[in-house]
Design brief:
mainly beta; RNA Polymerase Alpha Subunit, Chain A, domain 2; 5-stranded mixed β-sheet; 5 helices; rod-shaped
């Protein structure tokens, strides 16, 4: 068949042939579109290449990511296989900037060649200020009470301070940081635990792992009571002598495990006394103040000695 006959045959019924080709193309495109899937999720926004400046106002922390492609390509992709970031390498001065949001693939997303990725928003507005770094002391934050009859006598944090980075405008108002709440309820022995450092402002960055080791020392409370002006009796004085005390009363300090016994204790008559049985001549003497039996209560007398003047009776 020569060329003229071939062209003539091709020209026969050309409208129908063009329509058939157009329909085939439409069906192909429709089929491709019917197997394309779309998936959405949000990922954290990373700030890269920060130098001498830091964000000083709020900005979007999460960016919406759209994946478009065949189902077997997009659904195996994990959310952390797409990184979203802004690059601050070209910015060194405080101010407000509009910066494009970029993305990169990693992990399973690298194998999806036909994957289409888009982000929302495509750029953000961010205010920057000079970065300030300083040491900030830590303070423990407590809840509840230790067991009855006990007290927390001391505690320590290690480290006791952290290095904090933040914008100059905010750093001036930061004098301390608190730990997460430490529950004291029912504790009656020393204890230690790791506690995180609390900071509510996302513009503040703590270097390291933002944690500290807490060590609390708990001791049993020893009940104590002071009784004042307890009379001092003179005993054992030989016949024919008189005695005159420089101080007629003393105080008693009570300590013990039984708080009820300490609270209810009342010194009987002549509970405190000085024994003059060893004195046979008039004069001035210093005698020890003796206390009676207080059971299981430990006591201390103040003063422990008093001065007494011994004289002949009637003089």
């Amino acid at each position: 068949m020569d060329g003229r006959k071939f062209l003539a045959r091709m020209a026969e019924n050309w409208p129908a042939k063009v329509l058939s080709i157009g329909l085939a193309i439409f069906l192909f495109v429709f089929h491709r579109m019917s197997i394309v899937e779309e998936r959405f999720f949000s990922v954290p926004l990373n700030i890269e290449n920060l130098g001498a400046v830091m964000p000083s106002s709020s900005y979007p922390r999460m960016i919406r990511v759209s994946l478009r492609g065949e189902a077997n390509s997009i659904f195996p992709i994990m959310e952390d296989d797409i990184e979203v970031f802004i690059d601050m390498e070209e910015i060194a001065s405080p101010g407000t900037y509009r910066i494009p949001v970029q993305w990169r693939k990693k992990g399973t997303a690298l194998a999806a060649d036909t994957l289409q990725i888009s982000v929302d928003p495509i750029e953000i507005s961010i205010s920057l200020d000079h970065k300030i770094s300083k040491f900030v002391p830590l303070e423990a934050s407590f809840r509840g009470q230790v067991d009855y009859g006990y007290t927390m006598t001391s505690y320590s944090l290690s480290p006791s301070q952290v290095i904090v980075d933040g914008p100059a405008e905010l750093m001036g108002g930061i004098s301390e940081l608190l730990t997460e709440i430490i529950d004291l309820d029912g504790r009656n022995t020393d204890f230690s635990l790791m506690v995180n450092v609390q900071y509510s402002d996302p513009l503040i960055v703590i270097r390291g792992n933002a944690a500290s080791e807490f060590l609390g020392t708990i001791s049993r409370i020893i009940p104590v009571r002071n009784i004042l002006d307890v009379p001092i009796a003179i005993t054992g004085l030989m016949e024919g002598f008189d005695g005159e005390l420089e101080l007629n009363a003393a105080s008693i300090n009570l300590e013990g495990e039984n708080q009820d016994a300490i609270v209810n204790f009342e010194p009987p008559p002549d509970f405190l006394k000085v024994d003059c049985s060893g004195i046979s001549e008039p004069g001035d003497y210093v005698l020890r103040v003796q206390a009676g039996d207080a059971g299981n209560i430990s006591l201390r007398v103040d003063p422990i000695e008093v001065r007494i003047r011994i004289s002949q009776a009637g003089y």
